[in-house]
Write a structure and sequence with these properties.
This protein has 203 residues and is of the alpha+beta class. The chain is built from 4 helices and 11 strands. Strand 9 and strand 10 form a beta hairpin. The longest helix is centred in the C-terminal third of the chain and has 15 residues, at 176-190. It is globular. The termini are far apart.
């Protein structure tokens, strides 16, 4: 909010409040809504193993896979339970995620698939202060369309900024566990010799 001096109909000068028009990624304090830089690019796929083969063929790996992962989230304001499989790898400092939903529960992922097929879905930002980041999202007026993770110790939210180049933007809480995993994936990619390109986790 800013103030401007204007003359009224009686010839007197008065101060009026004027709301500044800001780019959608900037809040009123002049700072960005999103924390830091893009950390991850996410893809929604219909066949995880086929997608993994394609990425390995491009020299990206090793991939770490978690299969049949249950999720309890909030989808556009309503509780949602579903099962997904995910795969994670790095290319340099950038983390990549592949997501396959294993059931037909209406979700942010089926919504994307129904709108035109699989592929690039989200850009992810990581934040050490999740509450502060979400307060900025609220101030900016961005809808939160998918959220959860409190039950497993790492909160996340998918938001829909206007004019976004991705279907959604993810904001993920950076905890000791998630930071450790990020370092592990980056280091594995840096020294990878092409062997054992797909590695199963959690089972």
């Amino acid at each position: 909010m800013t103030f401007s001096s204007r003359e009224n109909s009686n010839g007197r000068t008065c101060r009026v409040a004027v709301r500044m028009l800001l780019p959608s990624g900037i809040v009123d304090d002049g700072g960005p809504v999103l924390p830091g830089v893009i950390r991850q690019v996410g893809y929604v796929v219909t066949d995880l193993d086929a997608s993994l083969a394609g990425w390995v063929g491009l020299g990206v790996g090793p991939w770490y896979v978690i299969r049949a992962l249950p999720q309890r989230v909030t989808y556009r304001g309503r509780p949602c339970e579903l099962t997904i499989s995910i795969a994670l790898a790095n290319s340099g400092d950038l983390q990549l995620e592949l997501i396959q939903q294993l059931d037909d529960t209406p979700s942010i992922f089926t919504e994307f698939l129904d709108s035109g097929g699989q592929g690039f879905h989200q850009l992810a930002y990581w934040t050490a202060d999740f509450d502060a980041s979400m307060a900025k999202v609220q101030t900016a007026g961005w809808p939160v369309v998918w959220s959860g993770g409190a039950d497993v110790g790492t909160r996340f939210a998918y938001v829909e900024p206007p004019g976004s180049p991705a279907a959604v933007i993810e904001i993920m809480e950076l905890t000791e566990a998630t930071e450790g995993m990020a370092i592990f994936l980056r280091d594995a990619a840096e020294g990878w010799d092409g062997r054992d390109p797909v590695r199963e986790l959690g089972g």
